[in-house]
Specification:
This protein has 6 helices and 8 strands. It has 200 residues and is of the alpha/beta class. Keywords: GTP-binding, Hydrolase, Nucleotide-binding.
């Protein structure tokens, strides 16, 4: 079904008068960033997944994702028309700290970031949130609900992640297009509040 979606979108081209915005999709290892980009992209996404080897044993925590055999080593890329005039370029970043220089490079020119979190490993999100703060990148947080993962009320999650009151926090399913898109709408709405219209 995905291939049909990509094939039908392959013939679509930008008109040239759209507003294009770069968005970083960040989060810790195994939180679902590649799935998120694949779910939303209207074009065939560019993925840089590689098979995990024994070299990563003891480094990459596979708890909660026992079937995971690949990891992003550079970036994922996809494109989504959020409206007729607004195009989002999605750059999925690798989640391991050893790739944070790559994340910093990918953040250049980005208007904001969507940080995915997992309630089974909420603590793994803290360094990613800190990195976004260090980079000065506005962000929203989307808690990706994995099957069987514990659920919490949003105020509990906000407290646990020590999020500022103005930072958007939503629950999403990275596998579901409407749910994943809603998280981006929350982020873009937030970014618009940070960018006042120019004086006339």
């Amino acid at each position: 079904m995905d291939s049909k979606r990509f094939e039908s979108a392959a013939g679509t081209h930008l008109r040239g008068d759209e507003t294009a915005v770069k968005i970083l999709v960040a989060g810790h290892f195994g939180v679902g960033k590649t799935t998120y980009v694949k779910t939303l992209s209207a074009i065939r996404p560019l993925l840089t997944e590689e098979l995990m080897t024994t070299a990563s044993e003891g480094t990459d925590d596979l708890s909660g994702v026992p079937g995971k055999t690949t990891t992003t080593v550079a970036m994922d890329f996809g494109r989504l028309n959020l409206s007729e005039d607004l195009v989002l370029y999605l750059f999925g970043a690798p989640g391991q700290e050893r790739f944070w220089s790559v994340v910093a490079d990918l953040s250049r020119g980005a208007l904001g970031a969507l940080v995915l979190a997992d309630t089974r490993k909420l603590g793994d999100s803290y360094p990613v949130l800190g990195l976004m703060e260090d980079l000065g990148l506005p962000y929203a947080v989307a808690v990706n609900l994995f099957d069987g993962a514990p659920t919490y009320e949003l105020p509990q999650l906000r407290d646990a992640m020590d999020l500022a009151p103005e930072t958007p926090l939503v629950i999403c399913d990275a596998r579901d297009h409407a749910s994943a898109k809603n998280a981006l709408v929350e982020l873009v709405t937030h970014l618009l509040t940070l960018t006042p219209e120019p004086a006339r």
